[in-house]
Design goal:
The complex is a heterodimer of chains A (551) and B (269). Chain A is 33% helix and 23% strand. With 551 residues, chain A is α/β, with parallel strands linked by helices. Chain A has a domain of 358 residues. In chain A, strand 25 and strand 26 form a beta hairpin. In chain B, the strands form two sheets. In chain B, strands 5-1-6-8-9-10-11-12-13-14-17-16-15 form a 13-stranded mixed β-sheet. Chain B has a four-stranded mixed β-sheet with strand order 4-3-2-7, with no helix packed on it. The radius of gyration of chain B is 19 Å and the shape is elongated. Chain B has 269 residues and is mainly beta. The N and C termini of chain B lie far apart (49 Å). The chains are: A alpha/beta (551), B mainly beta (269). Chains A and B meet through helix 2 of A and loops of B.
């Protein structure tokens, strides 16, 4: 069994209270252990920083929408070709890299776990295949259930228990990690007559439900079912000025239960609908600071090329009017919507500079790094390859000041960003990129280096230029294998699928089957994914019901 | 003294020789030029495996042999000259910003993609997609001149943004498709669907042409710019006649599915 010892490095393991002390990390058989034999390979990490492998809580890296985005941008791939080698498969990069390249690039940036954030369950089978071709990293995916017609019908009929059982059935059928809600309630209106939800208390057509009731019901059911990660919510009114009230309303609907708000930067805008956009970062962060049941990822925008890729079809429709370039809208039967559009964030554009500043404000005003973690909503706010630059923005106030000077000054003046001097410490960076997301995901063995944890370790050479430092880790160890060894990608490795398998009453299938016969293009018996279809996978346990109703 | 490269072995599959460009060979002795990298299919090879070099790396390069399977000659060229004595393969002058490439024979598809300046002269025919945008890209060439004395095939000047493309012979279909701006002059005949999706710019032809229903007849006039443009082309050896220079032209405006600010000018008399 391969053994490894890392010595002399400064270890940042916030989950275990280790804050930059020099300590040894021992690895055997893919796990962190107490000690290893003398014959173990020893890495001398003198002058280096040792952290758990990075954990990305929200990104879009697999599935039909990602593939559509790849097809939509051949011009982006042509300029970033990843040649094959003895240890790497060939591929292309750009804003939406091919599957293999996605895995390699996460790994060579020190990330070892990533969560695909929006999968219509009908395409889960395809997603599992794509994720199996995404090397090195462990990955899971969130299942889009927030606009599911059958679930809405169950809610309308007041069948709460069936609603909960159906969610559990769907998670098993798709092999997902948690429930994702995207602009809940909007798809019906969008598909029928090109309208969107603007008020959480408006009725969703014939369902006689409001988005607020839908949100509340999902949060309640998922907490009762004890999923390791609570509902992952893309709130209504994304990108609209004045949307912070919707976001607050959504968080309040949790009534103290666990909830995760995705890319909250896009939901922290003040002003009135359609006018006077400004920052409402303070109002949002005050709520998060005061309510420990809420976790969120920022969804920072980074200047340069991006591509909006979302289940929020009406949003893509709105954005396509600004850019007038190529775009895609797609339908996914009774489950969700889909919109894709290449985009670029530019320093001189008022709204783009404002979005950038609001994201940073959220980071810098956050009092609990465990609950407000790093993301760019890859590739919506920018590629995950921009994380090192974002880390530098957070750690280096001088660099931030220089960057601010290059932006649209009108936009900056409407925010409080210029007056914030805070700099993130190395410990806080280790939290927002690893320990925090792992905890929010309920991944006990990730994001920490205690005995028994997965041996996912990243070692960086200390450098005052934090972007440079976090861009090129010297060693990346995944499951005890030194994938990146002395800055070089050396050993191919395949990660595994992380999913949950909540218990449920099989009688619920009697309620679901007729709906499939009537409305789906897929036969019920062909829909659910069996365990034997999976590649390497790990079931993350759900918590027994009732244990964590309120933290 | 010019650098002279002669093909001694015909490649079996296309040879990508981006290194054949004045900046890359400048100051290199012949043996060093032969040691430059190229791709033969998916294998990395030395330029010397296919070419023998004579002279020394300079601003001027002369290429001999049938280069119809050699791609990307003059890639990113910014100055100097390349003379190709025979035929040339795809993507000649990719990303060129200055200097001149002369092809004495025929050119394959994709002449001068992503070009922003300089001049490419093809004495024979050229293939499809002369000066066009690469697939997925918003715009084609944004400057420079591509002068083809023979005929071209489909999608000439696709999504071009600026610059001049002149064709001595006939053009295929979809000339100036999705054109954003710039000028295309075809001395021979246009194929069908010329200017489909065109926003701005001018497509000029000496002969009657089938037009899309989204083009409307505007007027008949003597555009001054065209007089200058045609005189310029005559100076470059195109068979422009006096009656063309002083003639009247029918202006058709379109594509009305897009901005409707483009024009197709057809010679009247």
């Amino acid at each position: 069994m391969s053994e490894l010892r890392i010595v002399n490095g400064r270890v940042y393991d916030p989950a275990n209270g280790v804050d930059g002390e020099v300590a040894a990390i021992c690895i055997r058989g893919g796990k962190i252990v107490e000690s290893v034999s003398d014959s173990a390979r020893t890495i001398d990490a003198h002058g280096m920083v040792v952290m758990p492998g990075g954990v990305d809580i929200h990104c879009h890296i697999a599935g039909p929408k990602v593939n559509l985005a790849r097809k939509l941008q051949p011009e982006d791939h042509r300029l970033d070709v990843q040649p094959g080698s003895d240890v790497m498969r060939s591929g292309t990069g750009g804003v939406v890299p091919s599957t293999f390249t996605t895995g390699y690039r996460y790994a060579t940036m020190g990330y070892t776990t990533a969560m695909e954030a929006a999968v219509p369950p009908i395409f889960a089978r395809h997603v599992i295949e794509e994720l199996a071709d995404t090397p090195v990293i462990d990955k899971g995916f969130y299942v889009l259930l927030g606009n599911n017609v059958l679930l809405y019908q169950l809610l309308k009929e007041g069948r709460k228990r069936d609603f909960r059982e159906a969610i559990a059935w769907w998670m098993n059928a798709a092999k997902g990690y948690t429930v994702k809600l995207v602009n809940p309630g909007s798809d019906e209106l969008w598909k029928k007559r090109r309208e969107n939800i603007s008020d959480l208390e408006q009725k969703v057509d014939h369902f006689d439900l409001t988005p607020l009731q839908v949100i509340h019901s999902f949060i309640e059911a998922v907490n009762d079912l004890g999923f390791p990660h609570p509902p992952h919510i893309h709130c209504n009114n994304l990108g609209h000025s004045g949307n912070f009230n919707t976001t607050l309303q959504t968080m309040r609907a949790a009534e103290g239960r666990r909830v995760h708000i995705a890319h909250i930067q896009f939901h922290s805008y003040g002003g009135e609908p359609g006018a006077n956009p400004r920052s409402a970062a303070q109002q949002i962060i005050d709520y998060i600071n005061a309510n420990p049941n809420v976790t969120a990822d920022v969804g920072q925008v980074m200047f340069g090329n991006a591509i909006t890729m979302t289940a929020d079809a009406p949003l893509a429709w709105m954005l396509r009017g600004f850019k007038k370039g190529k775009w895609v809208n797609a339908d996914t039967e009774c489950e969700s919507g889909c919109g894709i559009m290449p985009f670029s964030y530019q320093e001189h554009v008022f709204t783009h500079a404002l979005q950038w500043a609001i994201g940073l404000e959220l980071f810098l005003l956050s009092e609990d790094p465990w609950r407000l973690v790093l993301s760019t909503d890859h590739p919506n706010g920018g590629s995950f390859m921009q994380y090192p630059r974002l880390i530098k923005l957070l750690m280096d106030s001088g660099f931030r000041r220089e960057e601010i000077k290059r932006l649209n000054q009108k936009a900056i003046a409407t925010t409080g960003l210029a007056s914030i001097e805070r700099e993130y410490t190395m410990r806080e960076i280790a939290i927002i990129t690893r320990a925090g997301p792992a905890r929010a995901l309920g991944l006990a063995n990730k994001g920490q280096l205690g005995v028994g944890a997965d041996a996912d370790v990243t070692i960086y050479t200390e450098d005052a230029d934090r972007e440079k430092m976090f861009n090129s880790p010297r060693y990346v160890i995944k499951d005890g294998v030194a994938v990146v060894d002395n800055h070089e990608f050396k050993t191919p490795h395949d990660g595994r699928l992380l999913h949950i398998a909540p218990g449920h009453d099989n009688a619920i299938e009697d309620a679901i089957r007729p709906f499939f016969d009537d409305y789906y293009t897929v036969r019920f018996d062909n829909y659910a994914i069996n365990d034997d279809f999976l590649h390497a996978h790990e079931v993350i346990p759900t918590r027994p019901a009732g244990e964590d109703k309120k933290d | 003294m010019a650098l002279e490269l002669t093909l001694h072995t015909q490649p079996e599959v296309p040879l990508e020789a981006e290194c054949i460009t004045p900046q890359r060979v400048a100051g290199l002795a012949a043996p060093e030029v032969e040691r430059l990298d190229a791709m033969h299919g998916n294998r990395r090879v030395k330029l010397g495996d296919f070419f023998s070099a004579a002279g020394k790396g300079a601003n001027d390069i002369v290429l001999n042999g049938d280069l119809s399977l050699v791609k990307l000659i003059g890639a990113q060229m910014a100055q100097g000259s390349i003379v190709i004595e025979g035929a040339v393969g795809m993507h000649v002058g990719w990303g060129m910003s200055g200097g001149q490439i002369t092809v004495r024979g025929d050119a394959h598809d994709w002449v001068g993609p992503e070009m922003s300046g300089g001049r490419i002269v093809v004495h024979g025919d050229a293939g499809h997609l002369v000066g066009s945008a690469y697939r997925g890209q918003a715009s084609g060439i944004c400057g420079g001149e591509i002068l083809v004395h023979g005929s071209v095939r489909n999608e000439t000047g696709g999504a071009m943004r600026r610059g001049l493309i002149a064709v001595g012979g006939d053009a295929g279909d979809f000339t100036g498709v999705n054109m954003i701006a710039g000028t295309i002059v075809v001395l021979g005949n246009l194929g069908i669907r010329s200017g489909a999706g065109m926003k701005r710019g001018s497509i000029v032809s000496m002969n009657p042409a089938p037009l899309l229903p989204t083009y409307q007849y505007a007027c008949s006039y003597r555009p001054l710019f065209l007089k200058l443009c045609l005189q310029h082309l005559r100076g470059l050896g195109f068979a422009v006649e006096e009656r063309h220079i002083n003639g009247r032209w029918r202006r058709w405006s379109g594509d009305s599915l897009e901005l409707n600010k483009g024009e197709i000018l057809l010679f009247q008399r």
